[in-house]
Amino acid sequence: VGEAAADKRMAVALLVDEIQYFSQSELGAIIMAMHRVQQRQVPIALVGAGLPVLPSLAGTAKSYAERLFAFPVVGALDHTETELALRGPATREGADFDPDAIAEIFRLTQGYPYFVQEWGYHSWNMAPSPRVSLDVITASTTEVVRRLDENFFRVRFDRLTPGEKRFLRAMAE
After folding, report:
1. Which of 15, 50, 69, 94 is the most buried (most CB within 10 A)?
2. CA 112 to chain centre
3. HSE-CB for 159 with a 13 A CA cutoff
C-alpha cells in the first residue's frame, strides 16, 4: 500500500479509535508494521486514539514504541473551549447557546469532551427554538444521564472483571 501511494505521490492515513482494546499481539503487529513503514520511508501515517493507558500498552507490546509515536494527551476542555465546541456548530446552523446554558453544561461535564457532545446534542434537539436556554439544559439532563448510563457507562462496566466490579461497588459505597 505504501509503495502504491508513493507511486501515485499520495499518502495513506490509518485512523484507529479505541486502540487500547487491541490485544498485545495486535498492538505489537501494528507497531512493527509502522516501524517497517518508517524504515522504508513510505507515505503511511497511523493516527490512533485511546485511553491514557495507551503509551504503557504500546511500550509493553514493543519496547521501541515510544520512539515511533507521539502520545499527546487530550484532556478536558476549559470553559472557553467548551463554549467554542457548543457555539461553533450552533452558529453555523443559525442557533446559539445562552451563556448560562453553556456554564451549566460546563459545570455538569467538567469539560469532558464526550459529555459536552452529549449535552449539546440532546439540548439542541429538545430546544423549542434556535436559542438553547438554561431551562432546556435542565430538561435535557435526565435524558443525557439515562443515555450515558445505558451506553457510555454500561459498555465500560460490562467489560470489567467480577473483581473490578466489586471494587467499583466498594468505592461507590
Report:
1. 50
2. 9
3. 8
Instruction: Encode pLDDT of 95-140 as tens digits.
Output: 999 999 999 999 999 999 999 999 999 999 999 999 999 999 999 9
Distance of CA 50 to the CA centre of its chain: 7
Query: 24-50: string of b/e by CB count within 10 Å (b at 16+)?
Result: eeebbebbeebeebeeeebbbebebeb
Q: For 132, phi and psi rounded to 5 degrees?
A: -90, 115
Chain-centroid distance, C-alpha 97: 23
Separation of alpha carbons 104 and 113, rounded Å: 14
Q: How far apart are the first and last CA of the chain?
A: 53
DSSP-derived letter for residue 133 is: P
